[in-house]
Structure formats: structure tokens, C-alpha cells
Amino acid sequence: MRLPGMWLRHQVTVEPYEGDSAVGPLYGDPVVVRCFLEEKNRLVRAPDGREVTSGATVYCRLDAVDAPPESRVTLPGGRQTTVIDQLRRDGGGLPLPDHLEVQLV
After folding, report:
1. What is the rounded distance in angstroms from the CA atom of residue 43 to the CA atom of residue 48?
2. 97 CB contacts (<8 Å, ≥6 apart)?
3. Running DSSP on this structure, what letter comes out for residue 64?
4. What is the DSSP string of 4-63?
5. How many structural domains is the chain composed of?
6. What tens-digit pLDDT sequence spans the chain (105 residues)?
7. Residue 46, domain extent
8. Nearby residues of 91 by Cβ (< 8 Å), 6 or more positions away
9. If you compute the radius of gyration of the chain from its CA atoms, what whole number of angstroms results?
10. What does the pLDDT look like over 42-60, one tens digit per residue?
11. Any idea of the CA torsion for 26, 32, 33, 35, to the nearest 10 degrees?
């Protein structure tokens, strides 16, 4: 089951992280993503095991975007932030909404 369209009330722009260069990080082409944005501070675990504070979380459809850690995200108000981690939430055939949870700094 996919996230219902009526839940996707916000839009963010994601620039997928592609690695580092001699002049700084490299990002892919910007992708506008329909999502549900929750701006709330919470403690999350980064992929390397560190505990970090997430200031916002984006919930979108599984096929909406690939947002690896360190990707750049622009929120509706214009604030730019980076991805801590993305988590696939797949209901495995149960009547639960499959979605991608993207944790942001």
C-alpha cells in the first residue's frame, strides 16, 4: 500500500549526495518531492552509530527519491539541511503505508 496522495501536503527539493571533490561535496540534479514534513527535534542514530539530533523528518513514497546520507534538502521555507539517514518502511504486503523516512539535521 502506498502513502495516500492526500498525506503528501508539502514539497521539498532533494539534491542527492554523489561524493566529494577537491572543492567540496558533489550533488546530483535537484528533485522536487511531494511529502509529509514533520519539523520536530528528536534523537536518531546516524549510519556510523553516532547519536545526533534530527530537526525534521520527511515521509514520502518509496519510489520518490534516493536521498543517501549527506544529500542536501531544501525545505518549503527555504532552509537548507542535510540527510542523516533514509529508512525504507515496507509493510511487506500488510495493509500499512509503504514509505521512505528521511531524517534531516
Report:
1. 14
2. 1, 2, 3, 4, 7, 89, 91
3. S
4. PGGG--EEEEEE-EEEEETTEEEE---EEEEEEEE---EEEE-TTS-EEEE-EEEEE-TT
5. 1
6. 888 999 999 999 999 999 999 999 999 999 999 999 999 999 999 999 999 999 999 999 999 999 999 999 999 999 999 999 999 999 888 888 999 999 999
7. 5-104
8. 1, 97, 98
9. 14
10. 999 999 999 999 999 999 9
11. 120
Q: What is the identity of the amino acid at 72?
A: R
Q: Facing residues of 73 across strands?
A: 14, 81
CA distance 88 to 100: 5
Contact between residue 52 and residue 69 where contact means Cβ atoms under 8 Å apart: no
Distances (CA, A) of 4 to 21, 34, 40, 54: 39, 11, 22, 25
Distance (Å, whole) CA 88 – CA 76: 23
Which CATH number does the domain housing residue 26 bear?
Answer: 2.40.10
Grid coordinates standing for 30? 535537484
44 within 8 A of 57, measured Cβ to Cβ: no
